[in-house]
Amino acid sequence: MTDAAMHIGELAERTGLSLRTLRHYDEIGLVTPSGRTDGGFRLYTADDEARVMLIRRMKPLGYSLDQMRELLDLINLVNANPRDPELDARLESVRQEALERRDRLRIQLAAAEEFVAQLHARSTKA
Predict the structure, then answer these.
(1) 3-state secondary structure of 44
(2) Would the N or C end of the chain have less CB density within 10 A of its end CB?
């Protein structure tokens, strides 16, 4: 563990997630701290922070915790085996699915924007 390790509070602040969420991720094995202090406090590294940020980016796309774990495991495998065509194909499939999820989210956002615009138009007429 290096001097760059951070406690859970700093990780929470840097990622915008609550302490409760980070503890839950630890309990279910989604994000395991890289170490612990002598007193048992969780210590996280920049790699742990990057993993949490990947999770944050998956959440709006509607991935379940189990799906997130599978995707993170796949990313780890790809990083460990960068020239494996089977893993590349699996990652490409995930990328395509993420694009589809993003497009559905854009449609939902457009509908929400229209709704807000209609409410705004009605409130300015009053």
Answers:
(1) strand
(2) C
Residue type, 34: S
Over the stretch 62-113, which tens digit does the pLDDT of each residue have?
A: 999 999 999 999 999 999 999 999 999 999 999 999 999 999 999 999 999 9
- Name the DSSP letter for residue 36: E
Continuous H helices in 16-84: 19-27, 46-58, 65-80
Distance CA 36, CA 9 (A): 14
Q: Calculate the CA dihedral of residues 75, 77, 79, 81 and round it to 10 degrees.
A: -150
Strand partners, 43: 7, 35
Q: Where are the domains of the chain?
A: 6-125
**How far is it, in rounded angstroms, from Cα 119 to Cα 126?**
11
